[in-house]
Amino acid sequence: MNSATKFEIFLGTQPGLERVLRDEAIEAGYKKAKTVNGGVTFWGDWSDVWRANLTLRGPSKVLARIGTIRAFHLAQLDKRARKFAWGNTIPPGLRVRVEVVTSQKSKIYHAGAAAERIERAMAEDHGVIIAKDADDAQIVIKARIDDNNVILSVDTSGAGLHKRGHKQAMGKAPLRETMAALLLRACEYNGTEPVLDPMCGSGTFIIEAAEIAAGFMAGRSRRFAFEQLATFDAAQVAQIRRDWQEAHPAPSKLQGFYGSDRNEKVIGFAKQNARRAGIEQFCTFAPLAISSVKPPAGPPGLVMVNPPYGSRIGNKKELFSLYHAFGEVMRDRFSGWRIGMVTSDTMLAESTKLPWLPTNAPIAHGGLKVKLFQTGPL
Ligand SMILES: C[S@@+](CC[C@H](N)C(=O)[O-])C[C@H]1O[C@@H](n2cnc3c(N)ncnc32)[C@H](O)[C@@H]1O
Prior knowledge:
- Helices cover 31% and strands 22% of the residues.
- The longest helix is centred in the C-terminal third of the chain and has 18 residues, at 316-333.
- The chain is an alpha/beta fold.
- Strand 2 (34-36) and strand 3 form a beta hairpin.
- It has ten helices and 15 strands.
């Protein structure tokens, strides 16, 4: 595969956020991006893979489809996996893991045995090393078996893309940066208004919002699995970084970003995380209980919040009074602001007595389903 060959690229996300991610991909120039279960697909080349990893804020992973092996039984898979041109993408010497994620309408149904055959073929005939486990792997190949086709994709991201490389200190139940970015987008945040999170924990919404406003590239501080692939072109990737920089000059003035939380310790974490992300000068973090939160001076903007909910942290009765207090503060003091609130519990959302718009599909999050509740300007 040379670097201009087109193939299918898959951007992963939590089910429920596919459409928001598709909108981000289309806006970034991947015009024919379409939603599939758990993600978005489009056709592109390796430079599209690199740019998606570096610049998109929503995807949890970027997978590149590197080929398909037709196989009706394990011995055939073994034989054909040995003939597959792995070296075009995966150089010898890397520690590789193969994960068969689904098998449907196929004679080969044993995912573990299929993964093992592919790994062994790659190791014995193509010089890769079989990784001990997921943590040991430098490269992960994801295989789907469908209608006797073993569809092979390489995970070009490596560590999940929510790991931007800045958040080291976290409170309980932190939100993933990728999810925070998509929720901000779902609330039509585009970097031009102030954002306030009155239960900010380690500051994920606020830091993500400030980075978007500052025009910072999402993947500027981290490494990616694609850097180890045979297709990697360092000069082209450096050009993608320069193009981004040119298109996003440092803004002269930014609206404010305000985080508060009653837990003083997590406010310290949020400050450290903002400092590492290079946006602390645009952010104000304060240890405040919800009852003391007031809107900052200046134009209204977006309140983005992820209060505690049921099965994660806190107890039900306290939660009802917390949501009630949040709703009261918003209704009394935040005239003109819009609200985006993530919670798993519709009864808790209703107890705020805020004028919620109709909600969209639930979003899978940490084994639970959450929903984004939104208001128009209060
Ligand atoms: C689910 S966590 C938020 C996580 C955050 N989005 C992040 O990414 O780290 C909920 C936060 O609400 C805070 N909280 C709970 N009760 C509060 C109250 N009465 N006033 C202010 N913050 C409160 C907790 O300290 C906790 O940090």
